């Protein structure tokens, strides 16, 4: 009898404690907070299982110089703000994110991932990480071009490497905003005092 009472009490206390943890404001939700207990373990376990189940097993485009160049251009437009560029400091956006976005073109990056894994991440995004899904804004070919680029970052042809380190074209300065205008003074003649 004591066993069942303990079991029932445990089944009530654990969910109630978890509810109080989240509802009471104790859960780490700011990007500067430390991890929740087992957060990384469970998040990676779930992500790895989903990707292994759903990622494409074959790459429909060739790892050609043209595809690497197209991938480099797309990467600079859509990915570099978070994942960085070679020889470039981290952006303020990347510095303030949690979890920290991996640098994909420096060090190992994701060169040990299959292109299908990177494609899945680009297409679907990853919840609660800031990684958006691009399936509604990029074509399948474009997503594969980026996936091939990051999967082969350590062995890109020189033109693709050069494109990734080239500074973006300079933007013309923003037009100056005129100071707030004072309302015009009344042009009607002053009325004589009565």
Give me a quick take on this structure.
This protein is an all-alpha fold and 194 residues long. Helices cover 46% and strands 0% of the residues.
Map the helices and strands.
Blueprint: H1 2-23, H2 39-54, H3 65-78, H4 80-83, H5 92-95, H6 115-124, H7 140-151, H8 158-165
Helix pairs in contact: 3-7, 3-8, 6-7
**H and E string:** HHHHHHHH
Low-confidence stretches: none
> Main sheet?
none
Distance between the amino and carboxyl termini: 100 Å
Mean pLDDT metric: 86
- Oligomeric state of this protein: single chain
Strand content: under 5%
Number of helices: 8
Q: What does the overall shape look like?
A: elongated
CATH homologous superfamily label of one domain: Cytochrome c-like domain
SS content category: mainly alpha
The level 1 CATH classification of one domain is Mainly Alpha
CATH third-level topology of one domain: Cytochrome Bc1 Complex, Chain D, domain 2
The count of strands amounts to: 0
Helix content: 40-55%
What key phrases describe this protein's structure?
single chain; 194 residues; mainly alpha; Cytochrome Bc1 Complex, Chain D, domain 2; 8 helices; elongated
């Amino acid at each position: 009898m004591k066993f069942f009472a303990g079991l029932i009490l445990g089944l009530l206390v654990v969910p109630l404690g978890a509810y109080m943890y989240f509802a009471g404001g104790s859960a780490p939700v700011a990007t500067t907070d430390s991890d929740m207990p087992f957060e990384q373990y469970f998040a990676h376990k779930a992500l790895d299982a989903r990707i292994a189940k759903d990622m494409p097993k074959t790459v429909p485009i060739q790892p050609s110089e043209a595809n690497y160049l197209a991938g480099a251009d797309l990467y600079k437009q859509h990915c570099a703000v978070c994942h960085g560029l070679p020889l470039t400091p981290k952006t303020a956006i990347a510095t303030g994110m949690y979890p920290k976005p991996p640098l994909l073109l420096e060090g190992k990056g994701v060169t040990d991932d299959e292109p299908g894994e990177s494609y899945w991440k680009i297409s679907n995004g990853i919840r609660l990480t800031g990684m958006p899904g691009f399936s509604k804004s990029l074509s399948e070919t474009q997503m594969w071009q980026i996936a091939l680029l990051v999967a082969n970052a350590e062995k890109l042809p020189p033109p693709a490497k050069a494109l990734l380190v080239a500074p973006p074209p300079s933007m013309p300065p923003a037009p100056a905003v005129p100071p707030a205008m004072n309302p015009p003074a009344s042009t009607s003649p002053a009325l004589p005092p009565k």
